[in-house]
Write a structure and sequence with these properties.
The complex is a heterodimer of chains A (649) and B (361).
Chain A lengths: L16 H12 L6 E5 L5 H7 L6 E5 L16 H5 L6 E5 L2 E3 L6 H5 E3 L1 H7 L4 E3 L1 H4 L4 E4 L7 H13 L1 E6 L2 E6 L3 E6 L8 H5 L3 E5 L5 H16 L1 H7 L1 H17 L7 H13 L6 H16 L7 H12 L15 H16 L15 E3 L5 E4 L22 E3 L6 E3 L5 E6 L10 H8 L21 E6 L3 E8 L2 H5 L2 H16 L5 E8 L2 E9 L2 H8 L3 E2 L5 H18 L4 E8 L12 H14 L3 E6 L9 H9 L2 E4 L7 H7 L4
Parallel strand pairs in A: 1-10, 1-11, 4-7, 7-10, 18-19, 18-22, 22-23, 23-24
Antiparallel strand pairs in A: 2-3, 5-6, 8-9, 12-13, 13-21, 14-15, 15-17, 16-17, 19-20
Chain B lengths: L16 H12 L6 E5 L5 H7 L6 E5 L16 H6 L5 E5 L2 E3 L6 H5 L1 E2 L1 H7 L4 E2 L2 H5 L3 E4 L7 H13 L1 E6 L2 E6 L3 E6 L8 H5 L3 E5 L5 H16 L1 H7 L1 H17 L4 E3 H13 L6 H16 L7 H12 L15 H21 L5 E3 L3
Parallel strand pairs in B: 1-10, 1-11, 4-7, 7-10
Antiparallel strand pairs in B: 2-3, 5-6, 8-9, 12-13
Classes of the chains: A alpha/beta (649), B alpha/beta (361).
Chain lengths: 649, 361
Amino acid sequence: MHHFDDIYPFSAIVGQDLMKKALLLNAINPRIGGVLIKGEKGTAKSTAARALAHLLPDKEVVDGCTFGCDPADPKGLCPECRDRNLPFPIKITSMRVVELPISATEDKVVGSLDIEHALKMGERKFEPGVLAKAHRNILYVDEVNLLNDHIVDVLLDAAAMGVNIIEREGVSYAHPSAFILIGTMNPEEGDLRPQLLDRFGLCVDIVGIDDADTRVEVVRRRKSYEDAPEAFIHSWQSEEEDLRERIRRAKELLPRVVVSYDMLTMIAQICLDMAVDGHRADIVMLRTASTIAAFHGRTDVTEEDVREAAELVLSHRMHRQPFSEQQMDKEKMEQSIQKSQQEKKQPEQEQQNPENQQPKENTMPDGSTTTMFAEGDPFKVNQKPLAIPRRIDSFRRDGSGRRSVTESRDGKYVRSRIPETIGPDIALDATIRAAAPHQKDRDGTLAVKIESSDLREKVRERKMGNTVLFVVDASGSMGAQQRMTAVKGAILSLLIDAYQKRDRVGLVVFRGKNAEILLPPTSSVELARKCMQQLPVGGKTPLAHGLSKALEVIKREKMINRHTIPRLILISDGKANVSLGSGSPFDDAKEIAAAIHDAGISSFVIDSEKGFIAFGLAQTLSLEMGAKYLKLEDLQADQIAEVVKGISA
Amino acid sequence: MHHFNDIYPVSAIVGQEQMKKALILNAINPRIGGVLIKGEKGTAKSTAARALARLLPDREVVEGCIFGCDPQDKKGLCLDCQKKAPDLKTKMAPMRVVELPISATEDKVVGSLDIEHALKKGEKKFEPGILAQAHRNILYVDEVNLLNDHIVDVLLDAAAMGMNFIEREGVSYVHPAAFILIGTMNPEEGELRPQLLDRFGLCVDIEGIHDAETRVDVIRRRQKYEDTPEEFIRSYEPQEQELRDRIVRAQALLPQVAVSDDMLKMIAQICIDMAVDGHRADITMMKTAATIAAYHGRNAVIDEDIREAAALVLSHRMRRRPFSEQKMDTGKMEQSILKTQGQKAGIAAAQQHTHTHTHRH
């Protein structure tokens, strides 16, 4: 990790105890597998993650090994260490925090051909990337939800088994890469992919501090740190030392911590009742509870440890319900704790009936009644690919329409070609291969003599396609007409059709007081079905909220996947009755509609007003958005998907 | 395959019987054509796929051949072996699991010019890629749905022909590349292209275990494995050895397994009723049912084998409907089975005997 300034001491961070605890537990027991820190801006997320570097314990490494192999783990050695003579030269170093910048390219993450070595010596050598540096260290990703999709793919691949396998750019190599993932994110900027989310052992949600006195303390400390960083750090030295000592003691104690069968059953019961996917949660919860016990200087795990661990382990593994936070239901957890305690005394007799499929009536906190509708019938979607604008200079889409070769430097390097003009994105491996057979006939001082005719450039490719975002009015009027059923049907039909084309489909729903991303843009039918199973309908119409949320989603989507072509489909009667601020609700909506127009997003408005259009609000809105306009009544339910296909034709 | 930690034993995986069975069947009979393991996060998908490496049996290869050519298969020999034939030295070597990472580039997958050789000798020489290593072995792709489309195209090309044609960077080459594809995926991360899906012989859908006590077992075993990996693996060695022996026995039995005409009809009827595309399902189901019979030490395929095979073969070949998971309708399958049994009863009454054929699997 590079520091161009002094690190703020960990113990000087005011409050945020849960976050600090989660980080400390990882320092004690790296097997917990990292932590995801979710929170609003300016809540010391990054400060804490960076400050952890100072508290990390020492470890033994093989001296001179690029990967910092563990001399005590003969199976986990890198290829070089395997060939090394015993005994290994041993060095003690502290764990490090290795930062993965959002802008990192794939070759820098995975590793690639060592260019200098290739040119000077005419030999190929592997140049380690971020995943190599991260082995036995902490891999820290700031704003992890903004990480490029293909970088996430690579991270997932390595994290699955703690191995990084390189088969690219002329190099074949494999090295161990077992890292602790620490990430921070601001949930307002979008969610993480489920598989990546699961790779974080723990998750904490943090908020700013509400207490005035404490806030003053935050500012005061920050100021004295900035005025005289060295003096400030010095003044916290004894606290830091205490903490380091406590970590050291806990680490020593950890192997002796025992977990009783009752506690194991409790862990299993909690995970079962909270309906988490798979078994990773159970295993992480056990490790976390043991580490908590060690942190408190105990060798036995108590109920309280399990409770505390559950909170850290489960919050990001729960299935999210629409219009509610992804949160752990503490009451439910208490019930399963009691259940597992009773089970000790008497055999279990529960086994609930599967819930029925009828629409369920619920009373929401705002007093309105909501109804859940099932998804609509499947529609036939014809095989024509989504139409795309005829000419967009930055990309080219091939016949099958399922991917595109990008002209910019992001995307995966898949192969090389002879460039038309020599640009910056040279494929060195291919260039050397092209030059290699001619070396005998050329003069020069370098090992490899390259002429311009040898140059090859990288052809990069990325998964891409259209992003179709539905913005759906879920206020009372929509429920009455069962429109939602048709919309859900359209989304699933589009996805099933889109899965060969890498198109992504998302859903923003607005009702009551706000809007919500019900389905972040995805290409997974599975995820879509899960997310849309329950969708409450009813309440007021916060149209402006819906549109602004949609704009936000599209902007983020463009950030992660620059070449996607966004489409927005608004389904509403336009009768906005909740304003963003103090203005009129409809004017607010019009203003954001204009912003959508300015952003160059092609859009479509489907008017859900029934019968004679008395207000024409949705039509007015469609003019502001530069959108195509259609009446929902004129559409058969199964035509929504067709209409979306024709949107930009 | 690269391992930087101990391999968790297959027999120590709690539950997930269908997944384990599908993997074992492929170890017995590579012609089944691989398996796709679909499932939610944290369900031992990758663990199981990697653990398979320890159960794979030996097979005969040409000594010194980089592609591990089959000396019995004269037509399938690589260019070098064709030159040397028929003077081929052979040896026994175990099947391997060759891993294809998501970040692989095309040159390393199909193979390309050997840079060092070219620099030093000024000659063009082909350097084999992953497809070469995968010949007669298992090609394993973790998170297969995240694989780049371009690499998928290359895989599909090779899988369709069983050959890899290289025409790049001034190198022309062709070599056999018949591999078994094993992949894992979490469907929440996106779908798999249908052509690639069809290349997997079998498919299993797995989920976590919904029983508290069994879950405790999962946690405990994992904990033991992590605390003392070597001891843990040793404690499962008897079970692992038993499984290996069983695989070898099944392999020896397999050529003798007979599939009666009635059973073949049942397979065909099920595939018709389930409306699968093409005939690959029928063929794979026949091979799978025969392998299941061999696994159980029988030399005849029975109803139950077909039922089991159908579940493994059909789930990913059903036409997908938007609101249902891609799954097999067991009720419908039972009807097909009854239908063919009804026919059989009628025919049996008419003519007193049935023919039995031995098929090559």
